[in-house]
TrEMBL record:
Superkingdom of this protein's organism: Bacteria
InterPro entries for this protein: DciA-like (IPR007922)
Protein name per UniProt: RNA-binding protein
Length: 98
């Protein structure tokens, strides 16, 4: 009978290696950006957001309300900084409100 190895791995480590092996990191980043936007902006802004996209370090947010778009445009740099802090790396360099 073969000897059983007692190596144990955490689920997080296994998921990270699976994501790396299958080149899923960009897709996972996009999902995390969408979740972070909803979490950070709260239900009021999230309900008025129609789409959240990440393309080449540019976060593109499509909003229903032009008033909200104008209000958020004043704090673009702060939003970028807070989103990057929450994501743990410099994923976003530019924010477009559409």
């Amino acid at each position: 009978m073969a000897k059983r190895e007692n190596d144990s791995f955490s689920i997080e480590d296994l998921m990270q290696s699976f994501i790396k092996e299958n080149n899923l990191s960009k897709g996972m980043q996009k999902i995390k950006v969408e979740e972070t936007w909803t979490k950070m902006m709260g239900p009021g802004v999230a309900n008025n957001t129609t789409s959240v996209k990440l393309q080449n370090k540019t976060l593109i947010i499509q909003l229903k309300s032009s008033v909200l778009r104008e209000e958020l445009s004043y704090g673009k740099e702060k939003i970028i900084k807070l989103m990057n802090e929450e994501l743990g790396s410099s994923v976003i360099s530019k924010l477009m409100l559409v």
